[in-house]
Automatic annotation (TrEMBL):
<dbReference type="GO" id="GO:0008233">
    <property type="term" value="F:peptidase activity"/>
</dbReference>
<dbReference type="Pfam" id="PF06866">
    <property type="entry name" value="DUF1256"/>
</dbReference>
<dbReference type="GO" id="GO:0006508">
    <property type="term" value="P:proteolysis"/>
</dbReference>
<keyword id="KW-0645">Protease</keyword>
<keyword id="KW-0378">Hydrolase</keyword>
<dbReference type="InterPro" id="IPR009665">
    <property type="entry name" value="YyaC"/>
</dbReference>
<dbReference type="InterPro" id="IPR023430">
    <property type="entry name" value="Pept_HybD-like_dom_sf"/>
</dbReference>
<protein>
    <submittedName>
        <fullName>Spore protease YyaC</fullName>
    </submittedName>
</protein>
Length: 193
């Protein structure tokens, strides 16, 4: 498995590339019997930090079989409830595979990029918050530039940029789930032959 991947949300191929990568992971984890948990981190009180809840909202219609969504616009997962939510996930599910999704700040030429890392996400680092790392796989969208006044940068991030990233990430996940369902169902059918 590749450690780090980067995709430009403006590239029309990004949805296909991301969904292909994620569908293999979802299929493998589902075949192992591990429930898939999407942990969408952020808050709707800050435009730049709303990426996670926006993705969660878009994915909320997907909850089925082994898929579980935490973090929506209605019930966001943020610094104040992240530890409690992680405890709930680990109590509710046996060996969950957690895909953590969050907004991130970066260099000017990275704004609009989506990064997938085969490892945990470190939420709150841009705002110097001491939160535990979360996730087996992390998806971050660069919503704006990193600067010394990160709180103001997040507050003044264009909603268009955040929505574009949320659309690409959620569409990629939708397609990955469809592809992985086909793979899982196809392999089950082959096992019964």
């Amino acid at each position: 498995m590749i450690e780090n991947l980067s995709f430009d949300s403006n590239d029309k191929r990004s949805v296909v590339l991301i969904s292909n990568y994620l569908s293999n992971i979802i299929s493998n984890e589902s075949n192992k019997g591990n429930p898939i948990v999407f942990l969408c981190i952020g808050t709707d009180r800050s435009t730049g930090d709303s990426l996670g809840p926006l993705v969660g909202n878009k994915l909320n219609l997907l909850t089925r079989n082994n898929l579980n969504i935490y973090g929506t616009l209605k019930n966001p997962i943020h610094a104040k409830n992240l530890t409690e939510t992680m405890n709930e996930i680990n109590t509710t599910f046996n060996s969950p595979y957690i895909i953590a999704i969050d907004a991130c700040l970066g260099k000017l030429n990275s704004v609009g990029n989506i990064f997938i890392n085969n490892g945990p996400l470190y939420p709150g680092t841009a705002l110097n918050k001491n939160l535990p790392p979360v996730g087996d796989l992390s998806i971050t969208g660069i919503v704006n530039i990193y600067a010394s006044i990160d709180f103001m940068i997040l507050q003044n991030t264009r909603l268009y940029n955040v929505m574009k990233l949320a659309d690409v990430i959620s569409t990629s996940i939708h397609q990955a789930i469809i592809k992985s369902d086909l793979c899982i169902n196809g392999s089950r059918m082959k096992l019964h032959n």
